[in-house]
Predict the 3D structure of the following.
Amino acid sequence: MPPKSTKPAAPRLPPLQKLRVRRPNQAQANPCVGIMTSMLGCWASSGYSAQGCMALEQSLRACMDQGKPEKQKKNTINYHLMRLYPKIRGARKIEK
């Protein structure tokens, strides 16, 4: 009879109904929102055609003229988890 192994048993995960990662695609905040908020506050406090708001207007125009950054590819982690989970979990008997 071979000697018993002294290695601890591998930990087992509890059964899961679904395997998902919450919100893998985080939306990036628009960098021009802060400048636009400041400009609207300036207009509200001193009127639309105020000369004091001209610097904020110029900085907002420069920010808006920069264009959009390249779109990030959509994260496919949940698709692959859904596809591979039955193989990881193994064959299960359907309970009625």
Remarks:
- Helices lie at 33-46, 54-65, 77-89.
- The first helix runs from residue 33 to 46.
- The mean pLDDT is 77.
- The CA atoms of residues 20 and 78 lie 6 Å apart.
